[in-house]
Amino acid sequence: MPSRPSKELETFDNPMAERDYTIRIEVPEFTCLCPKTGQPDFATFLIEYVADKKCVELKSLKLYMWSFREEGAFHEAVTNEILDDLVRATAPRFMRLTAKFNVRGGIYTTVVAEHRAPNWRAPEAVNLP
Asked: Which of 68, 86, 107, 111 has CA 20 to 30 A from 10's CA?
């Protein structure tokens, strides 16, 4: 197999570090295991962030997300773990991670976790007519 799951997140230099801009990454095929039943849980993750000096490299992100496939994890725990790992790797100005888990027993779960650098202020939204 040419690729294997990995917990290593690679980064690259932000090409426009002087500007606040939003990077949005959608991961529609996340899987982990229910820690109670061992059955698979499926989710779509949306990563939104304002990079500072580093951006996450996408192939390493794919392999990182794949690494949870055989791990048991509660939705809340895995969402916060992934956010912590991404923040540790990239040190962003702001990052929001939204995890939308597929229905299980008639219940949908969405977990939203955020990180904000201490001195960063969000720019004012511009509303155009």
From this structure: 111
